[in-house]
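Many groups now describe folds with learned vocabularies. In that spirit, our science desk offers one protein's residues alongside their backbone shape tokens.
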Amino acid sequence: MEQKLILLDIDGTLFNDEKHVPESARQAVAELQQAGHIVAFATGRAPFTFKKLQQELDMNTYVSLNGQYVVYRDDVVYQRPLHMDVLDELERHADAGDHPLIYLGHDNWFSNTTHHPYIQKAIDSLKIKREMMYDPAFYRVGDVYQALLFCPHGGEADYKRAFDHLEFIRWHDYSVDVIPASASKATGIDQLVQHLQLPSDHIYAFGDGLNDMAMLQSVKNSVAMGNAPDTVKKAAGAVTRHVNDDGLWHGLRMVGLLK
């Protein structure tokens, strides 16, 4: 069998509702790897938030931070930090609306406020065991690949009007991802595919969130999880079962990657 690249979102695709990887998904990843395929993460998370998962699944290739930081076998093949002047502008706008921000590097995260209930509720849902640092000026001295803006549903509309050069993608009731308008998991995947020189027929992608839509639309062999919103399902070539119902394993069988 010719080598394939299989890209897996984490939350809601690999992780079930309890933030655990079902045993069927673990076995599927191992079987794909044993067959010589490249199994990679395609996630909005920063690398430091899934290091333990990398070790557990022996996966060292990933498209992270919604396409802004791409690694193949532990070597960085693409990175695109946000410009400091853009973050300056975003900081001022968010401060006026009393909306906190978190700045994500590839190996750490920094908040511009010491405490806020929106941050608490959103970040707690990720179950990340990593202390968040307080440093409102981090973006001036370190590379920021993605920001997290904390505002209630609908609050991002004002930002979308004010920042046409940024993309605001909601992932929680109280938070949205902030990346360049021209960026997405799809652009990061393009960089990885160019590096690997693989044909489009050999690329597969699985996802469930709004930040997966560009990926599912651009990858020829794409599958949405059964737990995905209808808009995401429409962006994919196929739809599998809910993640809690061995959805990833069933999806891999649907596209012929597993027997």
Summary: The chain has two domains: 5-79+183-254, 84-180. The radius of gyration is 18 Å. The chain is about 30% helix and 25% strand. The mean pLDDT is 97.
